[in-house]
Design goal:
Rossmann fold, elongated, binds histidyl-adenosine monophosphate
């Protein structure tokens, strides 16, 4: 029997995995600099959590959940997104609620049973940030600024930011009825999916991508004309703050997003080189969600970035990738020196020093090859230096593999390690 990776999933292999780790490191650095702290929630949750938050009538809940019963008959679901789990954790943990607002983030896999295509997977990764406990427009602006800063840090300075407001409990229902009325008059010119949406979630029709539906969508009432005074003022203040931050955001009155918990501000960032699945990230305000999940009034806002798409948009991986040439390869001259090679290699890496943040990359043969075969391997993997064991009376013999010449002997391990550090392979960030 031959096994294959499940449909809609993939293995992230080197050198892509190196670049992924680099992207996640960069994102963590930026998140940390904005004061966000990481929360790692379980990969599965009670199904009801997603039904209540993401919304019963959304595509995600209706047809994309990976739901199963555990041995005690509890209904569990692989998380399709990270916001609801984070809010659940927030409500369970007094420590997280100590600071207002709470700035929390997460990185990890999400699961949606979608039709696989380029940029759309059944297991995909997100980098998400949530700011819980502020209703101020400055929170919205900081959030979008954070999103754009992460994009910049990974090499995407020119993403397009789309911005909209979906109103609140006061004005959204009025708008929803207006939209239902409007589309109700044009049902015969809409696709079947839209006719279905009309019954359950008419706002989602605005997001339809079918070309034949576009003329009807273009004439639909705009949410921006339906906002109440408070929502209008909030939206204007968010735009003003973004202008002050130098962030170009395009108002997109048909941006509705695929989750039901949003109120007021919603946004997406799109990258030009991603084709049909161009949204690298998206998010918005969810002023009612914490209450709906049983907590106190906690207006909040957040976003998630799709790491798969971010990796693609940022240009994928460099050939060869981040894993550069080893700094050294320890060659055992005789089979009896194999253990000494392990000991010397470990010492040279510096991994036993708890203060070492950038250990050297040092390899050694674990195949029992002859010394000359080990030299060939060292050369094939691009090792910058070869260190020979056992050491002799004068110390360790070292060969510079780039210049092809034997170096002066290094008298002991410490001297050798210092010397190798000084000659660290260019670009040889250890990972
Ligand atoms: P979302 O728009 O559903 O929002 O997902 C955010 C990002 O995840 C998308 O822009 C996309 O890059 C990526 N993504 C979504 N589905 C897939 C897929 N099947 N394959 C690859 N990438 C995908 C949320 O998930 C919200 N929780 C965002 C949020 C946080 N709102 C408030 N806080």
């Amino acid at each position: 029997m031959k096994f294959q990776v499940p449909r809609g999933t993939r293995d992230i292999l080197p050198p892509d995995s190196d670049r992924w780790a680099e992207i996640e490191d960069q994102a963590r650095r930026i998140l940390g600099s904005y004061g966000y702290r990481e929360v790692r929630t379980p990969i599965f949750e009670a199904t009801e959590l997603f039904v209540r938050s993401v919304g019963e009538s959304t595509d995600i809940v209706r047809k994309e959940l990976y739901t199963f019963e555990d041995r005690k008959g509890r209904s569990l679901t692989l998380r399709p997104e990270g916001t609801a789990p984070l809010v659940r954790a927030y409500l369970e943990s007094p420590a997280l609620r100590q600071e207002t607002p709470a700035r929390l983030c997460y990185l990890g896999p999400m699961f949606r049973y979608e039709r696989p295509q380029a940029g759309r997977y059944r297991q995909f990764w997100q980098i998400g940030a949530e700011l819980l406990g502020s209703k101020e427009p400055s929170a919205d602006a900081e959030m979008i600024d954070l999103l754009v800063s992460i994009m910049r840090a990974v090499g995407l300075p020119n993403v397009k930011v789309l911005l909209n407001s979906l109103g609140d409990a006061a004005c959204r229902p009025v708008y929803r009825e207006r939209v239902r009325d409007y589309f109700g008059r044009h049902l015969d010119r809409l696709c079947e999916d839209d006719r279905e949406r009309w019954k359950t979630n008419p706002l989602r029709i605005l997001d339809c991508k079918i070309p034949a539906c576009q003329p009807i969508l273009a004439e639909a009432p705009s949410v921006l004309d339906a906002l109440c005074d408070d929502c209008r003022a909030h939206f204007a203040a968010v735009q003003e703050a973004l202008r002050a931050l130098g962030i170009d955001a395009e108002v997109a009155p048909r941006l509705v997003r695929g989750l039901d918990y949003y109120t007021r501000t919603v946004f997406e960032v799109h990258a030009a080189n991603l084709g049909a699945q161009s949204a690298v990230g998206g998010g918005g305000r969810y002023d009612q969600l914490v209450q709906e999940l049983g907590g106190p009034e906690t207006p909040s806002i957040g976003f998630s970035i799709g790491t798969d798409r971010l990796h693609t948009a940022a240009g994928g991986s460099r050939p060869g990738g981040a894993l550069a040439a080893p700094d050294a390869f320890v060659v055992a001259r005789q089979p009896e020196a194999a253990s000494e090679a392990l000991i010397v290699a470990r010492a040279l890496r510096g991994v036993q020093d708890p203060g070492e943040v950038r250990p050297l990359r040092v390899l050694t043969d674990v195949q029992g090859r002859s010394a000359s075969s080990q030299m060939k391997v060292a050369s094939r993997v691009g090792a910058k230096h070869v260190v020979f064991v056992p050491r002799d009376a004068g110390g360790f013999a070292v060969r510079d593999m780039v210049a092809g010449k034997d170096e002066m002997k290094q008298p002991d391990l410490d001297a050798l390690r210092i010397w190798l550090r000084a000659h660290r392979a260019a670009g040889g960030e250890s990972r």
